[in-house]
Request: fold
Amino acid sequence: MKRVINLSLVALLVFMLSACGGSRETGDLTGVMNRPVWKGINPYGMVYVPSGTLMIGTGDQDVMNTFVQRPKEVSIQGFYMDETEITNNEYRQFTQWVRDSIAHVILEHWMEDAETPDGMEHPPIDWDLPVEWDEEEDADLLDEMFYQGADRLNGAKSLDIRKFKYTYFWYDWQKAAKNSDPSASRSDFIKKKEIAVYPDTLVWVRDFAYSYNEPMARNYFSHPAYDDYPVVGVDWHMANAFSYWRTNLWNKYNAGEKGVIQSEDYRLPSEHEWEYAARGGRDMAPFPWGGYYVRNAKGCLLANFKPGRGNYPEDGGFYTVKADAYFPNDYGLFNMSGNVSEWTESAYYENAYSFLSDLNPTITNRVDDEADEIQKRKVVRGGSWKDVYHFLQTSTRDYEYQDTTKSHIGFRNVLTFMGRSVNDF
Reply:
């Protein structure tokens, strides 16, 4: 009797599934079935910045600049942003991945029976195979990764960081959108660039004439004392390469092993995403903490910058400070003013506000390093440990050339929020 009842339930279930289009077509418009379920993600180390509007333009103390920085209301889509600048230790994960990938290629650590994919130079790497740096057989093969002969300092064997090169790709959406040839190949819009990714540690010496900063050049990126300090000495290309690598790192683990869909690519923020996030939800706030002053009621400085005539240690940091120093703004973002200035994806033009869109405004301009200097300018925001407080204001714009490294410029990533913004619920 029990078996008969169970068979009846199965038959009823099959009938219901059939009636709902579960096992056959019904003639109804149901959309594609079995699509992945999107529940959103909560990226580690990032905070959510809800969509909204902001009034861009010059600050109250820079009246003359309103002629080229016209006030304008714009709308920004919600996104996730790193709560701190990318730190030395986070960036080191990237450089060590590049180091290990080069070693695996030299040792020919390929996936078993794998073929070279189209567009690639070698088969996929088997990352489970160990790199035995100290074993004689591997060490002999890997010797080419180290400085040789007269390039060795005191005869010490150390890795040649000039060999830490990484190729990253991007799709030229602007060029593709303007293309009117339906027969154009997709490869026409896929771009790539190979760059050296190890931070330029000599910026600590190069940026300051008649100044003793050699200890920072020797130790800032390599010494564990600075692991949680923001990475510097990275140009705009290196920041983009890191973002591309970080996207692939996330996708390989989460999409490959967990089946979780990535929401979007990690990338640099546009300059107005950056400004919107820096204000922390405070309309027209001149600083991330909202007030008009760089000190609190007790006289304590609220950011790491160059106070007064150059009393660098007054704010608690001689050079940079830890990436999570001082209080965060109302979105939970640390050091949106001071510590290090930050790269954005946006190209810099003095009169950009006169023609920018009011919907997610930005100017995207990827040019070769051989282009005219004016085309290579990229917006940097936030001011740094070596700047006066004017550059700490959320509305202050500055720029640097895309192929330039500095001791006072770092970056952080953003991730576009997919679907209806959380603040609309």
